[in-house]
Design goal:
By secondary structure, the protein is α/β, with parallel strands linked by helices. It is built from 5 helices and 8 strands; from the N terminus they run H-E-E-E-E-H-E-H-E-H-E-E-H.
Length: 175
């Protein structure tokens, strides 16, 4: 019991020491790199191609069914999908479970998601530099990576980044 208490206190202290990212942490528009395109199938067999989302802000979430932080973030991303879909946000979840749909389909039955879920692969992980999860990227309407977060995001700061990208994009399309 004492060990669990110590671990909990240590983790809380660590989280408090890590700097929270703010919307100012978005990569400057002229420094952003193009997101690597991919085509993967969702649970119904439909193709999900990243480049088809050009013109929208994309929240690209690399996750796994065994990842505790991922399970915390998924409801947040579902909330963002509902709240900002009409403003131009699309969420794509990329499961990195080694056994693919064998683990993911039962997970989705218990935890349905309101956004596209696909199964990633080692090549995609390498192209995006995924070596820990969760890893979440924000891709602007031009298909460029505006932010990349390894580990759990700060929900409010991350939502702020989404709002900034949606507003910036709306201003640019109004010109």
């Amino acid at each position: 019991m004492q060990c669990n208490t110590f671990v909990g206190i240590a983790l809380t202290a660590l989280c408090l020491m890590l700097p929270a990212r703010t919307p100012n942490d978005l990569t400057a528009a002229n420094s952003r790199k193009i997101a690597s395109d991919f085509t993967l199938n969702d649970s119904k067999g439909a193709s999900v191609k990243l480049s088809d989302y050009k013109g929208r802000v994309v929240l690209l979430d690399f996750w796994a069914t065994w990842c505790g932080g991922c399970k915390v973030e998924i409801p947040w991303y579902m909330e963002f999908q509902s709240k900002y879909r009409a403003s131009g946000l699309s969420v794509i979840g990329v499961s990195m479970d080694e056994d693919g749909w064998k683990s993911v389909k039962p997970f989705l039955e218990k935890q349905p998601m309101n956004y596209s879920v696909v199964i990633g692969n080692p090549d995609l992980a390498k192209r995006y530099g995924v070596d820990a999860m969760p890893m979440t990227l924000l891709i602007d309407r031009e298909g460029k990576i505006a932010a990349s977060h390894v580990g759990m995001v700060d929900k409010d700061a991350f939502e702020g980044e989404i709002r900034v990208l949606l507003q910036d994009s709306a201003k640019n399309t109004a010109k």
